[in-house]
UniProtKB/TrEMBL annotation:
InterPro entries the record matches: Azg-like, NCS2
Keyword S-adenosyl-L-methionine part of the UniProt annotation: no
Stated family: Belongs to the nucleobase:cation symporter-2 (NCS2) (TC 2.A.40) family. Azg-like subfamily.
Pfam families (UniProt xref): Xan_ur_permease
Keywords: Membrane, Transmembrane, Transmembrane helix, Transport
Compartment(s): Membrane
Record's signal peptide: none
Protein name, as recorded: Adenine/guanine permease AZG2
Any single GO BP term: guanine transport
Protein species of origin: Populus trichocarpa
Origin organism lineage: Eukaryota, Viridiplantae, Streptophyta, Embryophyta, Tracheophyta
A cellular component term, taken from the record's GO annotations: plasma membrane
Amino acid sequence: MEKGLNDAVSKTKVGKYFKLDARKSTFTKELRAGTATFLTMAYIITVNATILADSGGTCSVADCSAPVNQTAGPDCMLKPNEGYQSCLDKTKSDLIVATVLSAMIGSFAMGILANLPFGLAPGMGPNAFVAYNMVGFHGSGPISYKTAMAIVLVEGCAFFIVSALGLREKFARIIPKPIRLACAAGIGLFIAFVGLQIHQGVGLVGPDQSTLVTVTACSSTNPVTGECISGKMRSPTFWLGSVGLLITCYGLMKEIKGSMIYGILFVTLTSWIRGTAVTYFPQTLLGDNNYKYFKKVVDFHKIQSTAGAISFTSFNTSGAWLAFLTLFYVDMLGTTGILYTMAEIGGFVNEKGSFEGQYMAFLVDAGSTIVGSTLGVTTTATYVESSAGIREGGRTGLTAVTVGFYFLVSLFFTPLLTSVPPWAIGPSLVMVGVMMMKVVKDIDWENIKEAVPAFITMLLMPLTYSIANGIVGGIGMYIALSLYDYIVRLMAWLIKMRGMVLKERNQVSATAGADLAIEVI
């Protein structure tokens, strides 16, 4: 039956359009590949929404609840506040739908237009940069959420133009190789650090007045600062999250598809049980409201606040332009590198270093970012997890179309997706960091000129809580260490030019002397 189905589909217009026979693939193999890819990247639905919701989105002081005849102060966004939390919950629901839509549109476009088996979704790294560096936790940063989305939109347009002109690969090569490699590792460390914190992850790491950071995982913490009050390493949610991390690790060790999802599922399902120490629905007004929405199970949520949340009012500032350049180069390096890597794994790259559908793949990659920014999410890019589908035999765009279909189905399960707790997401952030550290093996650690800038880049990103600081610091150190070589080359060039000038002058003098002698004779 399977063989008959595959033969029938391969002879149809769909089979011929996706070149099933030409790429030695089958319909059922593409479906299995798409399923594997979706299972390995589905974690981004809740992870991306959680990270971007930490910025506060479009929520402001006006959403805070205040006592009768009093006005809420700006600090209400940083302290527990029912009104502001309610706004955050709605924003997270918006961001989940925006994440799913951008991933669905991007994956469909990659499959239909480029005919490549790559899944797309909002990328890890740019989302953390926007949430924690640009907008800041609950809007405490220098740039508003609407301005940040305007920056992402402009960056996507610039990205599209560069891709259309065929300059994308050349731009990516401007950054020194050790900095490019260190960027991926540094962003991985940054994301893992976020996953270890109390508000965004498992809560292992918290603030300390003496040492800045310390081990917490406390049973009782300060809701404002996150400092430990009592019961260090006795947090039930931390230990539950640790079990989820172990499940993910064991799954990856055995190369089980969807291991990231299984870890998240275990922790989430356990946290949905009310009346336990790890429940996500405590017996409070907010917990009751969340549980009431959760019980709907199936519900189509309409985006209310993040779609079209774009403002150019404060765009023309030095901070905005620096953020634009940082996003542009991070995306240029990351998305271009991932696309080539996936094409290499799939065996699509030819002797000239290009692959079939490359131009259209670049345009889809960039165009998806433009679509995502109008919905309220950050850069949409090809996912490394696409390699799972390629390993399952995915060779055509049908794999990507299958991924897009799965994202379409997930649109109708918003109540479940919004109820995933941070201690379920934290372990997956740590694992993303682990996977992004692979590139450090390609850095020449014996060469100080490469090792020091790379190390500075990786070190500054988590320690300064800024991806931009890491990139600027690494490039600055690379230029500083390269000054000696530049000066030596300049001196050598000046000496060479001086020699050429003297030689030319001597030749001119000799010629003039000969002419004079002839005239005398």
